[in-house]
Write a structure and sequence with these properties.
- The complex is a heterodimer of chains A (246) and B (509).
- Chain A is of the alpha/beta class.
- In chain A, 37% of the residues lie in helices and 26% in strands.
- Chain A contains nine helices and ten strands.
- Chain A has helices at 46-53, 78-82, 100-111, 116-129, 145-158, 175-189, 202-208, 226-231, 236-245; strands spanning 6-17, 20-31, 35-39, 61-66, 69-70, 85-88, 163-167, 194-198, 211-216, 219-224.
- In chain A, helix 6 (175-189) links the parallel strand 7 and strand 8 (194-198).
- With 509 residues, chain B is an alpha/beta fold.
- Chain B folds into three domains: 1-33; 122-268, D-Maltodextrin-Binding Protein, domain 2 (3-Layer(aba) Sandwich); 298-508, MetI-like fold (Orthogonal Bundle).
- Chain B has helices at residues 2-36, 60-69, 81-89, 100-109, 134-149, 152-160, 206-218, 232-238, 252-257, 284-293, 298-336, 340-355, 358-369, 377-403, 406-414, 419-449, 461-472, 476-504; strands at residues 52-56, 74-78, 95-99, 113-115, 121-129, 183-188, 191-192, 196-199, 202-204, 221-226, 243-249, 259-274.
- In chain B, a hairpin with a 2-residue loop joins strand 8 and strand 9 (202-204).
- Chain B is globular and about 85 Å long.
- The two termini of chain B are 19 Å apart.
- At the A-B interface, helix 2 and helix 3 of A face helix 15 and helix 16 of B.
Chain lengths: 246, 509
């Protein structure tokens, strides 16, 4: 595990909204193939951190180097970099005016100039991996929440990214649908792709994560293996947090 | 499919029912008004005090009669003399003060009207011309002198006035006139028989023949522009037209803004009253024949419809394109907080366009912005209505863009699409669906708004109906016909848009 090269390097990241300092000087490295789970109470800045990584939020200070490219450099073409770093949202954000198949193929077709046949083939392959190949011609609002989130993950995978950012992917789901989405994420974790997940699913974190970060009050309070974090929490706030959640 | 057909049938049935009820209500109210009119209470000029007097707006009659307003009279000012005649026939006014020659024409066409023996006033007609065009004025003055001396003027007038001489001396231009001296643009208002009026789709009359005779002498081409009477002076002043020739009298007020040539004829202002006699009622069939068949008058409606469609279509095109562009720029400013100055300019544009009446905008664009260019009037209307509509469409579309969930935007950007691509592939298609009903509404408003194009002299649908009215002195049929055509236009448009809406809504909802 030690000799894997670094894919994302965060240095001195700060983000303020007006007077509110959400992220205070965050520095960390994320290695290729890691599955990082970010925990923390609400308002601790974990979602903001995730959204800073693909510059949906512009950092106030600090730098983010992704694949040897400084994303915070104004001359960087952020759109090109984003193609390699997909995001899965809490509320799915599928495009309601497009079919499931079109949701999956539009980005490869328009941005990577993949041919229609190839894009369709790849999309159907991905859909069959999550058991939704028969929904290809449906529109998003004909699907359940769990199905939508599985489609959203496929949409991200269709671009063949190096990193996928998950922003509370199961928080908007009915409890009985959480399992099907986590199952897909587990499969994914074994495939070697780098995953950074903000989630409250402790089971997932314990089982799948290679590394757990605990955010508190805008800083990374604890950063270790899941075993250490869950069985031997050092930080007082982490102890309180775990006792409330588990 | 079956339910669809059924819907269409139901829809058609409702439409027919609606039209029938309009016709029924209108004819009843028409008959009621007629029965109220009786013998006139005006027998001498003195009786004008306290009466309701009709005049054509901006005419000498209007100026003279204004003095009576202090004596308790009510003056009703109509843009067309024919409208005043209709009002008199319906008993809405007591009398009309108007020039002798058109009065004779009106009374000849309407047996229940008659002219008071006593003349109201005597006045001289002249051609109005911009104060800056002294050379042209001198040339025209010389031409009028020539026409007076060689008897041409007299024969032109007698061709239109006088029972024995009418139609016997039509003016014929001499052959082989060298017309190399440019074009004389003449503004007139063709609702003033016998000086200028429409016959067989052409503008004819004493003034028109005089204009032709003057052009023959000056070696110029003639271009007649038919506009509202009260716009003639501003048209001449702004240089849109070279001269105004429309039975105009020289008055002190007019001299302030415009110059006049020497007088070409003397006219008398008379009073028309409704004596209510011998109004044989025409049958519906005869009225229909008179309004639409005679002189191929239906062509006024169909030709007008084509112009209305032309203006509406291209104005909508401009409105939609410009509206979307403005909406995208504005929402980009709102979303990113950049381009503040552009946003400010756009806001000012929207405020001005939405804060002033469409008609005023149309007049400003024609008489001020394009004052010195000889531009196609339909194009002016397209620009005016297009700009006007763009402001409303911009705000509708901006609302639609802002209503699309922010998450859609983030999803597009996170996939690697840039701002414009995200707008184009994800935001606009969704916004378009949301705003389609409001857009349809805006199109309906626009189609009906084009009915004011007559103010710059475009023969659109409304004005086509007006012309029939000015020839038949009948309000009901031409107006209802025009109203029905607009109604059908709007109904068809609404139907098309609802079909489009259904097609766009195939997302399984």
């Amino acid at each position: 595990m030690e000799n894997k090269d670094v894919i994302i390097q965060v240095k001195g990241l700060k983000k303020t909204f007006g007077d509110l300092e959400v992220l205070k000087n965050i520095t960390t490295d994320i290695k290729r193939g890691e599955v990082v789970v970010i925990l923390g109470p609400s308002g601790c800045g974990k979602s903001t951190f995730l959204r800073c990584l693909n510059l949906l939020e512009t950092p106030t200070e600090g730098s983010i180097v992704f694949d040897d490219v400084d994303l915070t450099d104004p001359t960087t073409n952020i759109n090109e970099q984003r193609e390699k770093m997909m995001m899965v949202f809490q509320h799915f954000n599928l495009f309601p005016h497009l079919t499931i198949l079109e949701n999956l193929t539009i980005a490869p077709r328009k941005l990577k100039k993949v041919s229609n046949e190839q894009a369709d083939k790849k999309a159907l392959e991905l859909l069959s991996r999550v058991g939704l190949q028969d929904k290809a011609k449906c529109y998003p609002n004909q699907l359940s929440g769990g199905q939508k989130q599985r489609v959203a993950i496929c949409r991200a995978l269709a671009m063949e990214p190096e990193v996928i950012l998950f922003d509370e992917p199961t928080s908007a789901l009915d409890p009985e649908m959480v399992g099907e989405v986590l199952e897909v994420m587990k499969q994914l974790a074994g495939s070697g792709i780098t995953m950074i997940c903000v989630t409250h699913e402790m089971g997932f974190a314990r089982e799948v994560a290679s590394r757990v970060m605990f955010f508190d009050n805008g800083v990374i309070a604890e950063d270790d293996t899941p075993e250490e974090v869950f069985s031997n929490p050092k930080h007082q706030r982490l102890k309180e947090f775990l006792s409330k959640i588990v | 499919m079956r339910s669809f057909n059924f819907k269409i049938k139901k829809f058609r049935f409702a439409l027919v029912l609606l039209m029938m009820s309009i016709v029924a209500v209108a004819s009843v109210s028409c008959d009621m008004k007629k029965s109220e009119t009786g013998l006139s209470k005006i027998h001498t000029i003195d009786d004008l005090e306290g009466a309701t007097i009709g005049v054509q707006l901006g005419t000498t009659g209007d100026i003279f009669v204004s003095d009576y307003e202090e004596k308790g009279s009510v003056v009703e000012r109509f843009t067309k003399a024919a409208d005043a005649v209709q009002a008199l026939k319906l008993g809405k006014i007591d009398c009309i003060v108007i020039d002798r020659a058109p009065a004779n024409a009106f009374v000849g066409n309407n047996p229940e009207l008659s002219i008071l023996e006593e003349d109201f006033a005597v006045e001289e007609y002249a051609i109005c011309i911009s104060k800056e065009k002294t050379e042209l004025k001198n040339q025209i003055n010389e031409s009028i002198s020539v026409l007076k001396e060689n008897g041409t003027l007299e024969s032109i007038i007698s061709n239109y006035i006088g029972d024995d001489t009418k139609g016997k001396f039509p003016y014929v231009s001499p052959e082989n006139v060298d017309r190399s001296n440019g074009t004389l643009r003449v503004a007139t208002n063709a609702t003033f028989e016998p000086y200028e009026y429409m016959e067989g789709g052409e503008i004819v009359g004493i003034d028109i023949d005089i204009a032709r005779a003057i052009c023959d002498i000056l070696g110029m081409n003639l271009k007649i522009e038919d506009i509202e009477f009260d716009s003639i002076i501003s048209a001449v002043q702004s240089g849109k037209s070279d001269i105004g020739l429309s039975g105009m009298t020289v008055t002190q007020d007019r001299l302030k803004s415009i110059d006049f040539t020497q007088s070409y004829t003397t006219a008398t202002q008379v009073v028309i009253v409704n004596t209510g006699s011998s109004n044989e009622k025409l049958s519906f069939k005869d009225k229909f024949h008179n309004n639409f068949i005679v002189d191929s008058r239906w062509k006024n409606i169909t030709n007008g419809l084509l112009v209305t469609l032309q203006i509406s279509f291209f104005a909508v095109l401009i409105g939609v394109v410009l509206g979307f562009v403005i909406a995208i720029m504005r929402s980009t400013c709102d979303k990113t907080g950049k381009y503040k100055i552009l946003n400010l300019i756009l806001k000012a544009y929207l405020t001005i366009i939405r804060g002033t009446p469409t008609m005023v905008q149309l007049l400003i664009i024609y008489y001020v912005i394009f004052a010195s260019t000889d531009i196609n009037k339909v194009l002016v209307a397209v620009i005016a209505f297009g700009l006007n509509s763009s402001a409303y469409i911009a705000e509708i579309v901006r609302g639609g863009i802002m209503a699309v969930d922010e998450g859609q935007f983030e999803a597009g950007r996170s996939l690697g699409f840039n701002y414009n691509q995200t707008m184009w592939y994800f935001i606009l298609p969704q916004a378009f669906r949301t705003v389609l009903p409001s857009l349809c509404n805006e199109f309906i408003v626009l189609i009906k708004e084009t009915s004011i194009s007559g103010y710059i002299g475009i023969m659109d649908l409304t004005r086509g109906g007006d012309y029939i009215r000015s020839r038949t002195y009948e309000a009901f049929m031409p107006l209802v016909a025009v109203a029905l055509v607009y109604l059908i236009l709007v109904v068809v448009l609404t139907w098309l848009v609802s079909k489009l809406e259904k097609r766009l809504k195939n997302d399984g909802k």
